[in-house]
Every structure is written in C-alpha cells, then in structure tokens.
Amino acid sequence: METSIVGVGVSISDRFRTVVEEKTARIQTLAPRALRLEVKVTHRAYRNGRIPDETVELTLLGKGPVVRAEAVDGDKFAAMDMALDKLAEQLRRAKEKRIDGRNQGRGAHFEKGSGSLEGIDVQPASADVLRAVATGAIPVVEDEEEAYSPVVIRTKNFDAEWMTVEEAVDRMELVGHDFFLFVDARSDHPSVVYRRKGWDYGVISLTTQAPPAEEALAS
Question: Are the CB atoms for 93 and 108 separated by under 8 Å?
Fold first, then answer.
C-alpha cells in the first residue's frame, strides 16, 4: 500500500514519516485491497491566545468506497494515533457488517408495493421538514462584514453519486460521519441519510419542483 504524507503550515520530519509507515501497517491487514493512504497534517494557529493544534486527516483509497478519519491534538503524533484508531474502527465495523450481511441473506430491500424499506431502521422525514428544505424556509443569516470567529468552517465539494439508501447508510458508516449526501438511484432525488438516536437512521429527499412563475420573479 502506497502512503502519501503532506503538511499544511507544518514541515513533515523523517521521524514522523517513519512512525506513520510503522503504524499504518495494521491498516493493510484490515483493508488488504487498499491501494493508497493519504495523510494530511494541518497546523493551525489562533489569534485569541488559544494554543495551536495539529489536525491529521487520513484518506484510504482502493477497490471500494473511500474511507476517511481525522483527529485534532496539540501534538501531531497523538493526533495521528487517534485518527488511525478511528480509521481502524471504521474498517472493523465495515468488515463485521459484511459478514453479518452474508449470514442474514438478502438484508435490506425496497418494497415497491408499500413504498417501505424492509430490513433497515430508516424513518422518513416529516412533511414539514421536507417542505422547509424544499422551499428554503430555513433561515440563513449572512453578515455584510466578515467578523473573526474561532470556528473554522471548511468547504468540500464532491461529485454526485447515485446509490440506494442502504448503500448510502453503509458509506456513511465507512466515512464515520453522522450524515451522507447522495442521489437516490430509485427516485433521482438529492437525498441525505443521517444517524438518529441509537442505531436508527433517517432519510431526507428533495423533490423536483416547477420553477417560479415569471410574475413572481418580477415582483
């Protein structure tokens, strides 16, 4: 498995590279089909007197879905250990889920007659939530002047992927997030699955609406 290490705002020492090579050896035992592990170390300094920290992001690429994990600590070696533990745990959970799926047979499936999902605890969002998302009723506050904030907001763009709700849930578990955006292969609607309390999941979909009339736009 190839390993790539980059630093943003911090230099990568030979010692850190050696430690990464040694510690990531166990990842290959959990993901033998992995081809490349990308390690990104980002140093952040703060203007409000807060102690600088290091963020380590791990991205595992190979034959299958991309698996990601990250951790933050004042020491990049400690952050690396925490991120690696998260990545290993996600791989173990995915492996156990594949084994359980083979043992349980068909697993989750879609019932066309009733429109329900069988074999998976997915609860549809309420009509009020769908209406608010579709019409933009959820308020967004924008300040004209950019003010300093200790909260770092990162933006990531990904290509749209068509998949089923069950596949989206599996992908969400792999990347270790609480939600996952996708395009529903059954309806072609932009959708998101999210983790609810316990081991339940929810799904929100955007339905296609006609564009507003020209009179409404003119007013």
Answer: no
